[in-house]
């Protein structure tokens, strides 16, 4: 699944950027980036702040959600008809869900920020029916969530207090008729949110489809953390808002895909935890496996296995054969 924005969303974001001065967007984008890196919530008090958030952050969030939802589609036997996007922001995860699951025909999007809901509705007005006809709601994550086949919460649980994460994850799971997808920043704090949600969901009877190859206790321990990276092309407005010349950006994220009991899943045999290290002797992969975290080197002279693994990278499934212990 591509990290490129759908054409309708790309056009909507370029049009949104054109309503504001470039310097104003750049200044608002810098404030948002500082808040994001400091782990603060998105305050976004004015229209230019909302526009800057959409232009500067929506492409990156889309790339992360697209990667997570593509894994959800590949690793589960699901064809959801309805999606609930909680903490939806401008609707990014629902745009990505439409690409991953063409079966979707109904969407409910909820966010506590009324301005964000209005912005999302505006961006979706000329988009596909799933977005343009969606039910956009202003409201908080709570026990009154409507049910849907697919429930998504992206970059949302990290804005809760740590003690609230487990309960929120259980509420999201209760609302999910088939599967739940969580996406958070690829920081130690973001992974801590995913780890807390993972423990709560397993205790709640959920099954894991991705990225974990096992439902045993997570083998990743501090100071390490489980996260991945998605590369996205930058829009013209995106580069202007960030004052950037490089035509691409890498978004680091953590994610979890859980399903209701009874739904078939095919987890990866192993998952590549960080960029592989290659030299003349071969390529070394750091892997998460059902037996724990291991290191596996594929020698260059082993042409058959080297051919099968040479295109694999950080975050990919490692399904070639059961990894050997270090």
UniProtKB/TrEMBL annotation:
Any one GO BP annotation for this protein: methylation
Keyword Iron-sulfur: yes
Keywords: Iron, Iron-sulfur, Metal-binding, Methyltransferase, Transferase, Transit peptide
InterPro entries: Mt_RNA_Methyltransferase (IPR052571), Ribosomal_Rsm22-like (IPR015324), SAM-dependent_MTases_sf (IPR029063)
Molecular function per GO: iron-sulfur cluster binding; metal ion binding; methyltransferase activity; structural constituent of ribosome
Gene Ontology cellular component terms for the protein in this record: small ribosomal subunit
The keyword Metal-binding is assigned to this record: yes
Gene3D superfamilies assigned to the protein according to its UniProt record, in alphabetical order: Vaccinia Virus protein VP39
Top-level taxonomic group: Bacteria
The protein's name: SAM-dependent methyltransferase
Lineage: Bacteria, Pseudomonadati, Pseudomonadota, Alphaproteobacteria, Hyphomicrobiales
């Amino acid at each position: 699944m591509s990290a490129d924005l759908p054409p309708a969303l790309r056009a909507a974001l370029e049009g949104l950027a054109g309503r504001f001065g470039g310097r104003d967007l750049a200044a608002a984008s810098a404030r948002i980036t500082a808040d994001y890196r400091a782990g603060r919530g998105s305050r976004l008090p004015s229209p230019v702040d909302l526009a800057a958030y959409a232009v500067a952050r929506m492409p990156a969030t889309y790339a992360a959600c697209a990667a997570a939802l593509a894994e959800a589609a590949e690793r589960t036997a699901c064809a959801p008809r309805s999606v609930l996007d909680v903490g939806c922001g401008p609707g990014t995860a629902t745009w990505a869900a439409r690409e991953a699951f063409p079966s979707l025909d109904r969407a409910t999007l909820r966010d506590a920020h009324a301005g964000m809901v209005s912005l999302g509705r505006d961006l979706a007005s000329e988009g596909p029916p799933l977005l343009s006809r969606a039910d956009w709601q202003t409201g908080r994550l709570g026990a009154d969530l409507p049910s849907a086949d697919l429930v998504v919460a992206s970059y949302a649980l990290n804005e809760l207090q740590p003690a609230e994460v487990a309960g929120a994850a259980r509420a999201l799971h209760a609302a999910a008729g088939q599967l739940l997808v969580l996406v958070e920043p690829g920081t130690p704090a973001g992974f801590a949110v995913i780890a807390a949600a993972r423990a709560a969901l397993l205790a709640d009877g959920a099954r894991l489809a991705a990225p974990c190859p096992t439902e045993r206790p997570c083998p990743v321990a501090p100071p390490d953390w489980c996260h991945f990276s998605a590369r996205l092309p930058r829009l013209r407005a995106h580069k202007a808002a960030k004052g950037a010349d490089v035509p691409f950006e890498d978004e680091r994220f953590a994610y979890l895909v859980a399903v209701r009991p009874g739904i078939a899943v095919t987890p990866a045999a192993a998952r590549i935890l960080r960029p592989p290290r290659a030299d003349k002797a071969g390529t070394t992969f750091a892997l998460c496996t059902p037996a724990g975290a291991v290191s596996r080197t594929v020698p260059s002279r082993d042409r058959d296995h080297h051919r099968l693994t040479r295109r694999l990278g950080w975050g990919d499934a490692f399904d070639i054969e059961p990894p050997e212990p270090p």
